[in-house]
Design goal:
Blueprint lengths: L4 E6 L2 H21 L4 E5 L6 H14 L6 E5 L1 E3 L10 H8 L11 E2 L10 H14 L5 E4 L21 E4 L2 H10 L11 E4 L2 H5 L3 E6 L5 H9 L17 E6 L7
Parallel strand pairs: 1-10, 2-3, 2-6, 3-5, 6-9, 9-10
Antiparallel strand pairs: 4-8, 7-8
Helix pairs in contact: 1-2
The structure holds 2-phosphoglycolic acid.
2-phosphoglycolic acid binds next to loops.
Length: about 250
């Protein structure tokens, strides 16, 4: 196994979420004490919900303020406005932002509604905005069964920037099952995503994976040589990356 990635195996996702939320809270509080922003890279999907629940609990019960947080989400479906209940902007509002005191003007999700000829410009601005914010302190990632991080489907080079991508058939199927009430025709066929290169510039990366459905791809990402055919395997090149996984996702290591 490549020894640059630290693998932390938890008995269950709740315990993983508790520890990661505490680390995020410590960053936010340390930055607040210095009068500075904490810059979080955030993910959507079923995986991070448990983490967002814990962050909301820390806000409501332990006084954690998000006033000094700037956030950048990984990706958005192309063609869905933020008001659509399957858009990632809508997901972030309902799963996290609406429940804490974050300033929504400082929360960034790629815009899935820009006209086709403006996508490149919007993507370049997204990368520039991350740089202007000082870079991402902690990037949270899920992983798809294709090995995608963000919506970077294989094959994907390590140096890609924020860009538009076609979604893989397996991803479309997984997303239809999980989020689109099984209506496969309603899943958009493309998305805008931070590139792998953009993700790798984050100071720290925490990839989450729960359940035995992720065990094969977790193994491949950690143990196979980094390659375009498994975008998550590029994380082996990062010097501060943690895989926080439950026992079922760790079963094949
Ligand atoms: P999931 O998706 O959290 O719904 O499993 C992860 C991903 O596709 O990145």
């Amino acid at each position: 196994m490549n020894n640059k990635i630290v693998v932390k195996v938890y008995p269950d996702k709740e315990q993983a979420a508790k520890e990661i939320a505490a680390e995020i809270a410590a960053l936010i509080r340390a930055r607040a004490a210095e009068g500075r922003e904490a810059v979080l890279g955030l993910a959507t999907g079923s995986t991070p919900i448990v983490l967002y629940k814990e962050l909301i609990r820390l806000h409501k019960e332990e006084g954690l303020s998000f006033k000094n947080v700037t956030s950048f989400n990984l990706d958005e479906y192309y063609g869905l406005p933020g008001t659509h209940d399957q858009s990632y902007r809508y997901f972030m509002n309902t799963e996290l932002f609406d429940h804490v005191d974050i300033d929504k003007a400082k929360t960034h999700v790629p815009d899935g509604t820009v006209p086709a000829d403006k996508v490149g410009e919007m993507c370049a601005k997204y990368d520039a905005d991350i740089k202007a914010a000082g870079g991402i302190d902690i990037q949270i990632l899920g992983i798809g069964r294709t090995g995608h991080i963000g919506f970077n489907e294989p094959p994907c080079a390590a140096d890609t920037r924020t860009h538009q991508v076609k979604l893989n058939e397996l991803t479309i199927k997984d997303n239809a099952r999980l989020f689109f009430h099984d209506k496969i025709d309603e899943v958009p066929t493309s998305a805008v995503t931070m590139g792998v290169g953009t993700i790798l510039e984050s100071r720290k990366i925490i990839l989450l994976a729960w359940g035995d459905g992720k065990a094969d791809i977790v193994r491949k990402s950690l143990m196979d040589a980094p390659s375009e055919m498994c975008p998550a395997s590029w994380l082996q090149k990062h010097s501060d990356c943690v895989f926080a996984i439950d026992a079922a996702a760790a079963a094949r290591l």
